Amino acid sequence: MINILLCVAVLGSSPMTLEKVVAVVGAEPVLHSDVVSLLIESGIDQDTAYESDPSSPAYQLALDQSIEKKLLVEAARREGLYPDNQVIEDAVDVTMEEIRSSFSSEQEFINYLASAGMTPASLRESYFVMLGDDIASENYVRMEAATAMAAMPSNAKTFFIENPEIVEEVLVPTSLSWIYLPVLPGETMAEEALLAEVRDLIETGETTFSAAAATYSQDGTAAMGGDLGWFGRQDMTAVFESVVYSLEPGEIAGPFLTPFGVHLVKLTDRDEEQVRASHIILITELTQEDLDRTMLQAENIVTDLEADLTFADAVNSFSFDPDPDNTGGHLGTVTVGAWEGEMREAVINLSPGQISSPVVVEQNMAVVIFKADDLQVVNWDDFSQEELQSMLQSVHWQNYYSGMIESLRADIPVMVNN
Q1: 265: Cβ–Cβ under 8 A, 6 or more apart, which residues?
Q2: Is the bond into 164 cis (omega within 30 degrees of 0)?
Q3: CB 185 within 8 A of CB 259
Q4: Packing angle, helices 85-100 and 2-11, rounded to 10
Q5: For position 16, what pLDDT does the model report?
Q6: Is the entire prediction scored with pTM above 0.70?
């Protein structure tokens, strides 16, 4: 329901403030509401977005993005790529139906809109304009992408070696290590006590592991006696794998915690790096308190790292790396320019040897701390052909796209109202 909430939040608010023209691209105005929409989409709360200082970096970035979108729309008009009314109406029909399905009844939908001073007709009119522009800009980008890909260099490694400045600007290849801290549930004493009793029953022969799983486990494997089948490294959560791979066939471990709950696990078989195991899980939901506790732990680790704790010792003491081959937490060369959000901001400007602030990842299920390694030399032989080709497409398109936007800015008048 996020589209309707965003649309209503912006269009249903003060028109005198929100409909101020902040720029003009060609003959098309960029409204304050366009910028506010992007600010809300970026995660800024509505009140802050409405009251944003136009001179602030966040507002200026959203304004630039709004101008860029209008440039693409204007270019699409000039190329005859703006969709006709029927195409837009069809897209609006789909969107309106998706929105209506979010409500239990048509009346609830109407009442919700009315609370923001809107009607289904006014919402539909707003979507007609927005979706028309969306389709137009997508049509233009698709046309240009085909042109760009046709001119893409054939040898990725040669291109990267010969164009280091483009690679650095777009991919920002950085050699990184990390400390990976899973967010574990708190307040699990009752669950741990129950599974401890269950383990005693299994080990004294009063029940079997599979029977206990069928009785107590709270996931879909209960019907199969807790059998997880065969799996390998990085198929399960890191904490779970660290326990399973420490066992010999027939051994039981637990109760122990993962981000999903409290477990007992039994290793049933092993074949080189593949294992087969069964588990019993009591599912617990992660809370904000659990995330806050893990974040505080990460902040304390960063403080110790800035004092006298070595990164290697911190990895050994605290990290549950999903990849056991990441010795010392080393991730190798990572193209952080392709990252987004807080992860990108945390590492994009790290100097060799510098430690990042803690970052929440994996939908609040882990917190990580990054370190830029001292050696920042990229070895393109470390990447597979598929990875090289994917990076080449990204670099080539980003370079092409930047030039395309600059060309449109030079061709289409842009006036910003200060």
Answers
A1: 240, 243, 244, 247, 252, 253, 254, 256, 277, 278, 279, 280
A2: no
A3: yes
A4: 110
A5: 40
A6: no
- For position 191, what pLDDT does the model report? 95
What pLDDT does 161 receive? 85
Give pLDDT, residue 154: 86
* pLDDT per 10-residue tile (average), the chain, 418 residues: 50 52 88 83 74 84 91 94 95 91 89 85 88 94 92 87 81 88 93 96 94 94 93 89 92 93 94 91 93 95 93 92 82 81 84 91 90 77 84 86 92 88
Tokens 């329901």 identify what position? 1
Q: What is the rounded CA–CA span in Å between residue 172 and residue 337?
A: 5
Q: CA-based angle 9:10:11, to the nearest 5?
A: 105
User: In the Cβ-directed half-sphere of 174, how many Cα atoms lie within 13 Å?
Assistant: 25
d(CA 126, CA 11): 8
Instruction: Count CB atoms within 10 A of the CB of residue 66.
Output: 22
As to burial, measured by CB atoms within 10 angstroms (0-12 exposed, 13-18 middle, 19+ buried), residue 217 is buried
206 in Cβ contact with 228 (< 8 Å): no
Look-up: residue for tokens 């809300």?
Answer: 40
Structural domains of the chain sorted by starting position, each given as residue range(s) with its CATH number in brackets: 2-151+406-416 (1.10.4030.10), 169-183+288-380 (3.10.50.40), 189-283 (3.10.50.40)
* Tokens representing residue 384 in the block: 């597979």
Comparing CA positions, the residue from 250, 252, 239 lying closest to residue 201 is 252
**Residue carrying the six token digits 């022969």:** 205
